[in-house]
Design brief:
By secondary structure, the protein is an alpha+beta fold. The protein has 8 helices and 21 strands.
């Protein structure tokens, strides 16, 4: 049974004035079979964190354990680093990293042939891996004869064939178009095993939300929230998480009164609406997160009045940008049904169905 545990992991590149503290005391536990996505903007530390688990980077502080084995330690009394080949960890990279002169079969067989597996065992396991990614009829082709999605399936099969203790993904679908990305997401979901944790680095929210049991949102080398996809979308811990996950509108509002320990009545442009909260705000001025899909048009007298500034037609509906400023400098957006025809400068009367008060920074 495999599991992964990180304790106060630090990683710094360079030294002196040119140093960059890529990881700042990251702690994270993965259970057997759990799928955790590392999500965050460029430079947040997510790829560095994955590389430390794989053994491709050493650490400057803390400890990493896989199963019962401490594979990286920067503790003064137990400093050591197990190289990647000694960790029984597989990595699927964005670039596929396939041998161009080897067939699909031989690319997948390569890690097995480095061990003590017999020829018959290698053949059996390669055929099983090919069947798992639905490429059994392409075994004798070379990578250059495959599409991008097929090459990524080969990379996934090669990563799975050695029965790794941990399977890591580093932006594996970034170079694929929408349909191929969805296909590979299905393949990755099918690859899950109850005894193998999976860590998935991405900046794509759709992938993280669809595949993960939990998502770790990183910023400036730290985990700023670790939660289920549903909790990240409905109860973001900060304005950064709210804006980054699910594209929530973070706006300023005023508390009128508490309704119960986890609900308050807010006012925005004279419109009153109810918002959920973790604890009652200590001040009247709060930031509130409203999902673009949590509003609708209304004919009621009580409404949030905004003016339409731009319309993005998205097939199933319209993403409408308005003149209500958000806290990050952009503007409040909402999703309206495809049957409507909102136009620039239209006055929209909106009703808010759900909102979340962003917890105050401690």
């Amino acid at each position: 049974m495999a599991s992964v545990s990180l304790r106060q992991v630090h990683k710094t590149y360079g030294s002196g004035a040119q140093s960059h503290h890529a990881l700042r005391g990251v702690s994270l536990d993965l259970a057997d079979g759990e799928f955790v996505a590392l999500l965050g903007p460029s430079g947040s530390g997510k790829t560095t964190l994955l590389r430390t688990i794989a053994g491709l980077e050493g650490i400057d502080g803390g400890e990493i354990q896989i199963g019962s084995d401490v594979v990286s330690s920067a503790l003064p009394s137990a400093r050591h680093h197990v190289p990647p080949e000694g960790r029984q960890v597989s990595v699927v990279f964005q670039s596929h990293a396939l041998w161009p002169h080897m067939t699909v079969h031989d690319n997948i067989a390569f890690p097995l042939r480095q061990g003590a597996s017999s020829a018959s065992e290698v053949g059996r396991r390669v055929l099983a891996a090919l069947a798992a990614v639905e490429l059994g009829d392409l075994a004798q082709r070379f990578p250059g004869q495959l599409s991008g999605g097929q090459r990524q399936r080969v990379a996934l099969a090669r990563a799975m064939v050695g029965a790794p203790r941990v399977l890591l993904f580093d932006e594996p679908l970034a170079s694929l178009d929408t349909e191929l990305r969805r296909d590979m997401m299905r393949q990755i979901a099918r690859a899950r095993r109850s005894d193998m944790p999976m860590v998935y680095v991405t900046h794509n929210q759709e992938e993280a939300l669809a595949l993960s049991d939990r998502i770790a949102v990183l910023a400036h080398g730290q985990i700023v929230q670790l939660d289920s996809p549903a909790m990240l979308c409905s109860e973001p811990a900060s304005a950064m998480v709210a804006a980054f996950v699910g594209g929530g509108n973070v706006i300023d509002a005023k508390v009128l009164r508490a309704l119960d320990p986890h609900k308050v009545l807010l006012s925005l442009r004279g419109y009153e609406f109810i918002a959920r909260c973790r604890t009652l705000p200590r001040t009247a001025d709060v930031q509130v997160c409203i999902s673009p899909s949590a509003v609708s048009l209304t004919t009621q007298a009580q409404a949030l009045e905004v003016r339409c500034t731009f319309v993005f037609f998205q097939g199933s509906g319209h993403l409408v940008e308005t003149d209500l400023p958000r806290c990050n400098g952009s503007y409040f957006s909402c999703v309206l049904p495809a049957g409507l025809q909102p136009r620039q400068d239209d006055l929209l009367r909106l009703q808010v169905h759900d909102a979340w008060v962003i917890p105050a920074a401690s």
